[in-house]
Amino acid sequence: MSLYIPPSPKRRASVWPVVAIGLGLFIVGGSAAIGIGMWTTRDERSNIAELTAQMHAAEVTRAARVDTMVLPDAADAAVQAMVAAQLSIDEELRALTDRIAGGRYSVAVVRGADGRPNLRLDLPGEGETLERLAEQLPAAVQDGRINQPPGLSMADGGLDVQSFVYHLVQARLQEGDAQSRDVADSLRHQAIASLGSGTIATPDGYLHTLSEGDTLALIALVFYGDLNAHSRIVAANPNILSGGNAPVAGQRLRIPGA
């Protein structure tokens, strides 16, 4: 008789340990990815903050990381030249006003070949300074560094440089202290006196007979030291200058007191 021994039943392998291990790896990997992302984002935020600070810095040099903020050499040289030219004009004007405030000056209304009046300053020993300033003004107007006031354009489109210099000096003197403002008034009275017999003083101002080439802007500059004061002259002479009529030689205008 043979003895039958049945085989042992096979145990099914449990999948739970595998699932647990996989889930653990997923959690660890996800945490690591999130941590790396946060670190990278923080680093990017730090870089952006650093770049923003450089862009708003007072000075940006070639050592800065923002290369686009560095001007090319040619453009940088042009900007520096423009700034130097503007400083030169300011220095020349400051020197002139200082010397004029010290009492060394004279001014006269002179007429060019076209009969147009020009206001000419004369400072003993400062002829070269005036010439340098006169040479720089047209370029400064063309570059936009100085605005050309209305009324100083010549018939040929050029610039009345002499009157422009007088205008700039007058403006600086009038913005100064009491002594400077007194000098500005003295310049104005000298200019009025140089107009000649065609100008008569009255209790409330002047009577001025227009000459060929006279413009209201220049007349206002002579009598008031201000190119924009021509509206006062128009208002005081409604029968002559009403409707935007241009002044005509021979007309007599009433110039109210300053």
Word description of this protein:
With 258 residues, the protein is mainly alpha-helical. The protein has one domain. Helix content is 53%, strand content 10%. It has 8 helices and 5 strands, in the order ααββαααββαααβ. It has a 3-stranded antiparallel β-sheet with strand order 3-4-5. Strands 1-2 form a two-stranded antiparallel sheet. Strand 1 and strand 2 form a beta hairpin. Helix 5 crosses helix 6 and helix 6 crosses helix 7. The longest helix is centred in the N-terminal third of the chain and has 40 residues. It starts with 15 loop residues before the first helix and ends with a strand. About 2% of the residues have low confidence.
Outline the secondary-structure elements.
Blueprint lengths: L15 H40 L17 H29 L4 E6 L5 E6 L4 H17 L17 H14 L3 H16 L5 E4 L2 E5 L6 H9 L5 H7 L1 H4 L10 E5 L2
Antiparallel strand pairs: 1-2, 3-4, 4-5
Helix pairs in contact: 2-3, 2-4, 3-4, 4-5, 5-6, 6-7
Give a quick summary of the entry.
The protein has 258 residues and is mainly alpha-helical.
